[in-house]
Structure formats: C-alpha cells, structure tokens
Amino acid sequence: MFKYLGLLMFCLQVSVLSAQIQQKSEFSIVEGNEVVSILIDKKDAKVVAIAADILASDVFNITGKKPAVVSKTSKNTAIIIAGTIGKNSLIDKLISSGKIKVSEFENHWERYAIQMVENPTKNIDKALVIVGSDRRGTAYGLLELSRKIGVSPWEWWADVTPEKSENLIISVDNKVSKSPSVKYRGVFLNDEDWGLQRWAALNFEPETGDIGPKTYAKVFELLLRLRANTIWPAMHSSTKPFYSYPENKFVADDYAIVIGTSHAEPMLSNINTEWKHDTMGEYRYDTNSETIKNLFRKRVKETADLEGIYTTGMRGEHDSPMIVGEDDTEAQVKLLEGVITDQRAILKKETKKNPNTIPQAFVPYKEVLNYYQNGLDLPEDITLVWTDDNYGYMRQLSNPEEQTRAGGAGVYYHTSYWGRPHDYLWLNSTNPVLMWEEMSKAFEFQSREIWILNCGDIKPHEYNIELFLDMAWDMDGFDKSTAVKSHMNDWAAREFGKASASKITDVLFENNRLAYIRRPEFMAWSQVEPVTKAGETELTQYHYGDEVSERINSYQNIIETTENLYDKIDEHRKDAFYQLVYYPVIGASKLNQKWLYSFKNKFNAKQGRQSANTLAAQSKAAYKRIEKETNYYNEKLQNGKWNHIMTMAPRFLPVFAQPAVSHVENTEKAHLGLALEGYQMEVNHEVINSYADVLPVFNSYTKSTYFIDVFINGTGTVDWEAKPKADWIKISETKGTLNSNSNIVEKRLWITIDWDKVPKGENKKEAPLGHDFQLIPPSFKVNSAIDFISEGKTTSIGVSVYNPELDTLKNYKGFVEDKGYVSIDAENFTRKKDGNEAKWERLEGIGYTNNVIAALPRTATPTVDIQAILTSSPVLEYDFYTFNFGEAQVNLQVVPTHAPHAGFGVRCAVSIDDADPVIVDFQTFGRSASWKQNVLKNASVQSALQIVNKAGKHTLKIWMVDPGVMIDQVLIDLGGWKASYAFPKETVKK
C-alpha cells in the first residue's frame, strides 16, 4: 500500500511541477524607478557576463534605465539570476534545495531553462532564473529575454532601433529549451574584399587596419543573438589570418564561439596568407610534408585549450586542387589519406587527447569529392561536411551507411560565391525557400552536426543568415515550405511592425521570385573564368507578350511598393528598412532595369525607333540610381557608420558596368511605324502582304491577347488612328499623337477580342485534324483586320480568330493547345495519386511560378522498373486538349537539384494517355556546360518524345522515379513553340 501511496505522491509532484513549468506570470524588469539587477557568478564563463551586459544594454536602449550586472546578492524584491550548472554557486544551491529542476536538460548541449522562483534566498522575494546546461546555454537564455522585450538580433548590424517604453514587464512562460537541431551552427566570412574588410580597415577598426578583435567581437555578438556558435573567419589575402592577431582567439573564447576553417584551410591554418614560399618552399605534401606539418603543429599548440573544429585533408592554394607528383586519382587518394593520418597524429600529440574526442571536419568540395567517391578511407569520427554546387544545390548527402558514422555529417552552403559560371557577390539573390528545401533535405539525410553558411560580407545577407540559423536551431518549426513565408512575416513584423509586415513579405517574395528566374548578377549574360563581355539576352521581346517588358514592369511594381513602404515606416526604423529591404530591392530592380532597358534600346534601334534614345536614357538612369543609393548607404546612412561596407561592383565585372547603348539619328520627315507581336522586324509599309502584317491567331479557348507597337520614325509629329474592321476587335487605344521632341514617341496597344460578338465557326463534335495551327480549315477561322491610318496612308494588320463551337469543349476544364503548344504550371494538376511510399506535394515560394510539385519524402525508395512505376509510384495527371496530332515533345522544367547519393537519381517518367512511361533524367555531373546553364537559369529542362494520336482530349502523366524531384513547368510542343527564356504562360481554357 505504501508503495502505491509513494507512487501517487510522486505523480502529484510531477503534476505540480508540470503545472509550474507551463504557467505564465508577470515579471517587471523596469517599473517606474525600480530596475532589477542581473546576478551572475564571477566564476562562471565570460560569455555569461557578456550576455548579461548585452541584456542590460538592451533594457537601457528601451527604457533609459540600465540593470546592474552584479555578483553579490542584497535585499531585493526581484532579481534576474543567470548561471550555468556547476559554475554558479547560487544556481547549484537552488538545484540542491529543489527550487529548480534541471534533470531534464543537465549535461545536454546548449540548453537552458527560464522559470520564476519565489523566495530563492532569504533576501530575495522573487527571481527570474535563467539556468544553462553549459556556458552557451546560459548566454542563449539571457538573450532570449532580449528577444522577449522586442530587441532584434540585428539591432547593431542593421540599426533596428527598439521601441521605447518607460516600463518593461514581460510575461514569463516557464520553459526548458529543446536541444538545437544542429550541433555546430555558424557562418563563413568569405569574399570579404568588397565590403567587410574595407569597412573594418577604413572605418570601424582603423587602429588595426583590418578585420581584427574589435570587428570580430561585434560579429560574435551577432552570432550569439542568432543562437549560433561557430565561425569560419575571413581568409582572403586582403585580410590578415585570424590567428595573426593573438587577441582574436581570446575574444572568440570569451564569446564562446567555436572556430573552424574552410575546405581550403586545413588544421585552422590559412594557407592563402600564412604560407610563405620564400621561406617555406612549395605547398606540396608529396615533396614538402615536414614544413607543412610544422605549420599544423604550431596551430594546434596555440588552439589546444580552445574550442575549435579542425578541418582535415588538404587542398591547394587559392581554392585549387592539391598538387601531387602523379596526375592519378589513386595516387591522390593515397596521399590524402596520408595527410589525414599525419594530422590526427599531430592532434593526439599536441592536445594529449584521443583524436576521436576532438571535433574534426572533412569537406568533400570540388576535386576532394572525387577523391572521396573513389574510395578515400576516412576515420569514422570525422564529420563529413557536404557542400552545395556553389549555387544552392547540394551536391551529395550521406547514404544509409554514412548516416551511421560516429562523426555524423554537416553542410556547407553558399548565398555568396566567387567563381564560374558567374559570381554573385553583391546582393542576397539566393531564394530562401530554395535554401529551406535543400537544408530540409540535408536534415532528412541526417546532416545535423555542422551547418555553415557562406554569407560573404554579412550585409546584405541578413534575412537569409537568420533563416539559416533559425532552421539550424529548431528544424521542427520548418516542416513545410509555407513556414518560410510565416518566418519572414514574423521577421518583418518584429523589425517594422505588424501593420506593414505582410506587404514587406510580399515584396521580398516577389523580389526572390524574379531573382530565382535570373539572379541580378547574371543579367549581362556574361560569364567568368575567364571573364567574358556582356552577351545577347535569351529573353524574347516579340513573343509571348515580350518577356523583357514584363520583367521591367514586374520590377517597377516592387520599386513603387518599396518606396511607398519606406515613406510610411516609422522614422526610427527607416535606416533598418533601408538596409534590410530598400537597398536590396532597389539595387536588384535597377540592375535588372539597367540591362533590360539596354536590351530594348538595341532592339528598337534596329527598327529605327526614336524610343531607343529614351530607353538608353532609362538604362543610364538605372545605373545612376544604383550609384546614388550605394553612396547613400556608405556615406549618409547612420552618419557614415557603414562607410565602405557596400560595393556596387564586386570584381568590376561587366554586369555592373553601364551597358553600351545605341542612339537613333533620324532626320527624315516623321512617319508612323508599326511592330507586331510575333515578329522581330517592323512592318514594311511599302510591301503589300508583308510577312509581318498579321497578328498571331487569337484562340477563343485561351482568350489570347497580343500587342502592336505604334512608333514615330523621323522628326516631327505624327497623328495616327486605328480602325478595327470588325466590332469584335478591341484596341486599348484607337488614336493618338506621337512627337519626336517629346516623351511620347511610341505606344503599345493591346489587342483583345470580344468573344460574344465573334461569329462562331462550324459546330462539330471534334476538332479539325491539322498539322499546323496556322493551317486550320477556313470554316474554323474568322478573319478581319485593323487599319492604321496616318499621314493619308493606310496599313492593314490582319486579325484571325479561332472560334469553333466544339461539343467536346463545352464543359471542359483543363489545358488546351494554343499556337501549336500546351503550357502547364506543374502545381495546377488535374488529379494526383499517391504511391506506396511517396506522394506529390506542392512547395510554395520556389520556381518560376512560385510553386513547384515535389515527390516526398525525399528518402523514399526510387522506382526505376516500368511496371513498378505504373503500380506503386505517385502520379500527376494533367488533362489537355489539342487541335492537332502527331509527334509531341514533352518538355519538363524542374529545379536543378542533384541526386543525394549513389542510390538516387534526378528522374521522373512521363507518358501521354496509355503509352508506357518514358524516364526523363535531369542529373548533371561536375561543371558541365548543361550544369552551368542550369544554375544560371535555376532550371533544368529535359524532354521526352510522345505521340498525340488524334486531335481531342488527352492526359499527360508524370510519375515519380526518384523522390525529391521538383517539377516547375511543362510544355507540350506540337511544333509551335518559339524561342523564349521561360515557357509561355499557361494555356488553360477560359
């Protein structure tokens, strides 16, 4: 009986404790003239005192009153107590007395509890207690209070001024933090030449003339606020090596930041600047290993008592392959194995520890991945740090055997990159949902030990840095793609207030969508290594509504929205808005418009249009706007706090220059010019029945719309009038005046059809059986024209509409052929069926249409056998209708990911109607030409030949072969698709 009574009492105690932990209570940090103190133990880690000081300063910035950070108690009504288990005597007493419970998280990695304790000591009535399982856990707990009082992690780095308040009373939800999802989480300061190093040397830390301890202290504070714990320091030759400033390593230890180094910096050594050829010889392990080992020994000796992650293996200098005596993969593998063996012997000797207890990383980057794939024997306790392909797509992840390794796996990911096919060093142009997708995949494949983000100069990568580190802290909160938009909305609300948060989020999502289609830094159609001149754009200006103009307008919309938002942002948050939203959006928009206007300038100049001169001026104005905003960022913002941080032309590549433009000199008498959608050249008024005197056929099932440009040729004034010859032809404007001396030198007219007035074609059950959409039998086409009248001359532009009355389409809902193709956005499937292990799911915020369809989970078993595909794979079905028949090229555009490991590919299977599925493979290898084009476009397009055996209804089927494939768009080409960068807009029945 007593046994059961004891059990009952234990359950009651647990219930009471649970209720205590879940309850919320109020705690006053500042109320009137009363300000709490923050009690710490001097014997605790330095980072605890640092975090306490940060919190005290945050309180001061809100209230004007600063809590004292003390190490002795006095008579207090209330106090904040912060300490680490085993390092704070008062915390340990509270544990031993049972006033706080720590069994749930004691000896765990970086966890903390926040809870209210009544009468913790005789002279304290109430305490808000932060207790950490280790030194960083305590620091994170203290800085969690900063978050709760409304202080942004970017309060210094982006000048996010907190809201002022006389009193500061918080609601305390007693809680114990979870273990971080990823053990080591941090950033790589890379390509620092263009901003961070110049800013530190010339502005923030001139006494050092470099990125030194003062700068690193600010970086480390940011990392603590973002709950990160690791850094790979700056390593270019413009910056002195991290360990060349002795104080750097002590500042890192004070802030409890773990130092690691990149794939090219073995054993915490910076080869770029620490290797001296004149005294050390050639950097070759096969001929000069002893000198290299001496460098390794020196570094291990000075870091043995500090937290660090030693990068094992070896690459050559300046991010190049390791030099070996034989150009032989087997010899390279053997030499690299010897390097790692020697490095671990050095670790053992200099630290007096077993190497398997020391954090080590192996980064299979570029050629090192090839060595690993060719049988490199890597000790089990070394962490495999997988890399992306430099453009946001993970090259490889752990297979089932690798997932059991003691050292686990990690990720090295880029949002900034210097290299071929083209750099992106200026703006943050990596789509955050793409980053979420790839990190989710890495997490799913058990990469949970180390996550490092190459964020360049930190600015302007602020949002993606926070997203990356928030995911690494708690991946449970990011189970769906929609979590990114929610996260961004919460971020915008925290930084700028709830009233504007959704609009800011929408602007940033649209900016990300446009950058996904083509990064701003890629808009010159040039490449690097070697650097090439600006090339011809792939965007069409005369098909599918004019892709160039559409992109100009899309950016103009977000420019105007951003400028309106800036005007309405509270004054004390304007500088933060400028850094986090305004400059990145305006910069991306104007760099795009600079090139887009130049493309239009050249196109219009070939047609002799006066508007070419205006477009040249608009291109130059866009360049000047970037110049103006960058100067403001550096020289005016925060009274010059950020001078030299922002460079508008990293490496001075062609994309950042003012494009060459053409000028039209036309002294002949003014006359009207016409240019039609679908034709590269203008209408020739002197030739009757010119090839460019008819618009593409209007389709009643897609409600087609086309444009005609009216423009002035020559000098003077031109009056024009457009007269449709049928009442069902609608024109956006029917008359006007163009003047060569004004801004009105051309107009774009939009031609639509009033389908209620168009005569119907023959009523049939089926469509005509034609091989060319332009050769539809006359009974199904209705022809008319628009007369353009100017200066006594009339030019007729043909208008043909396809308007049959087909019984089979009366109640049809789905996609239809238009001009010889069917275009489909993948998320708009007609039906989908789940498979045995996987299913197709929509991911939002990625792809050309901002939605893709992915086969999930990513760890499902690939299905290659055709019969198995038919019976067990998930399938998407799209109903479509054609007016033609014959061979059809099914073009699939997918997100250009890579197979996670050798057991997977990047494949799906397609068929039309009941044909056997045809497997389509999107995998690329190395830095092939197809890979380069894929990453420049963020798209991989492959096709399968199918037969459309008759005009009428059909079904396209897409099966999963490999999980993780993300389908963006589909184009079924029956021979009518013209050149365009993106697939044409959906041809859905309207």
From TrEMBL:
PANTHER family: GYLCOSYL HYDROLASE 115 C-TERMINAL DOMAIN-CONTAINING PROTEIN, PTHR37842. Keywords: Hydrolase, Signal. GO terms for molecular function: hydrolase activity. The keyword Coiled coil does not apply. This is Glycosyl hydrolase 115 family protein. Residues 1-19 form the signal peptide. InterPro entries: GH115, GH115_C, GH115_sf, Hex-like_dom2. Residues 814-986 form the Gylcosyl hydrolase 115 C-terminal domain.
